[in-house]
Amino acid sequence: QVHLVESGGGLVQPGGSLTLSCAGSGLILGPYPLAWYRQAPGKERELVARIGRYRNTDYANFVEGRFTISRDNGKNAVELRMTSLQPGDTAVYYCHAEPFNALPGHWGQGTQVTVSS
Length: 117
Hints:
- By secondary structure, the chain is an all-beta fold.
- It has strands at about 5, 10, 20-25, 35-40, 45-50, 55-60, 65-70, 75-80, 90-95, 105, 110-115.
- The strands form two sheets. Strands 2, 4, 5, 6, 9, 10 and 11 form a seven-stranded mixed beta sheet that branches. It has a four-stranded antiparallel beta sheet with strand order 1-3-8-7, with no helix packed on it.
């Protein structure tokens, strides 16, 4: 079975940092563009950051230089390092291996990030 397994979510105070990780299980991530999305209660899922196969990156405007996406094909994983977290960053964060050529896309199960004092 194919899985994307996320980890690293949790509760953090405003101004704090978290690093989310996503590992492929039964799925080689190297050929895929990879992304992190988030969904807050009552809101639509939105793109946070994307990294292409050649490590070109894209970030949502709200990131404002606070987050860094990276990939390690040797570890078959993608990470999202988040700093200067604010309550507005509270959401479930999802890893996504994006559809590419004939390859179908895959979603992780999501990991909760809560920013609160």
